[in-house]
Design brief:
Layout (H helix, E strand, L loop, with lengths): L1 H14 L8 H27 L3 H18 L7 H25 L2 H18 L11 H27 L4 H37 L1
Length: 203
């Protein structure tokens, strides 16, 4: 698993004297993020080559990663669940981009932006126990994520009107995936809060 690989690499760096033991946990987390993002980037590129959507997949991954970094979303409790779900989501998004390109249904792309764009506006930024946000970060990340959705959607629509619909195949799926992750994270948080409230009432 990626966490095991990051831990081994970090252990090697500590033994080599490159990283101090006090900083090992921070470096291990950074290595986990670096390896996982690199692995998913390779996966998305491979899917793009397989489906003749190489540039679309690169743009999708860059936009989704940027949006996800500011808006947040649900996090799986187990690493293998996270890897599996992320892989399935990326496969679905690539298939969806291919469907939009082959069908030419711009109305479907507009509909996705109208449905999932407001989800990002409503629920972002969503912090989680693993990554809590300060009030200042919530305000800043919220403005950035909302602005990113609005600007990218307008650019996609504008370029589509100029008969360059590339971004109109990409942006809706990025926004849709992030909107669903935010909704899932919001529901997960409220479910945990309800369980805690029930437990307090029983005790």
């Amino acid at each position: 698993m990626i966490s095991s690989a990051a831990k081994r690499i970090c252990g090697f760096l500590v033994c080599a004297g490159v990283v101090s033991p006090e900083e090992s946990e921070l470096y291990e987390y950074g290595l986990f993020l670096l390896i996982s993002r690199a692995a998913f980037f390779v996966l998305v590129c491979a899917l793009g080559l397989l489906c003749d959507l190489f540039w679309e997949c690169i743009l999708f991954y860059l936009h989704f990663s940027l949006l996800r970094g500011y808006a947040g979303g649900v996090h799986a409790s187990r690493e293998w669940v996270c890897l599996l779900c992320t892989t399935l989501c990326f496969c679905l998004a690539v298939a969806g981009m291919g469907w939009l390109r082959s069908s030419g249904l711009t109305a479907a792309a507009y509909g996705m932006l109208l449905v999932f764009g407001p989800m990002v506006w409503i629920f972002s930024p969503l912090d989680v126990p693993e990554k809590p946000l300060t009030p200042w970060e919530k305000r800043r990340f919220g403005r950035i994520s909302k602005g990113l959705v609005l600007v990218s959607a307008l650019i996609a629509i504008f370029t589509a009107q100029l008969r360059y619909p590339l971004l109109l195949w990409v942006i809706p799926w990025s926004v849709a995936l992030e909107g669903l992750l935010l909704l899932a994270g919001f529901l997960k948080q409220h479910r945990c809060q309800d369980k805690q409230e029930i437990f307090r009432n029983l005790t």
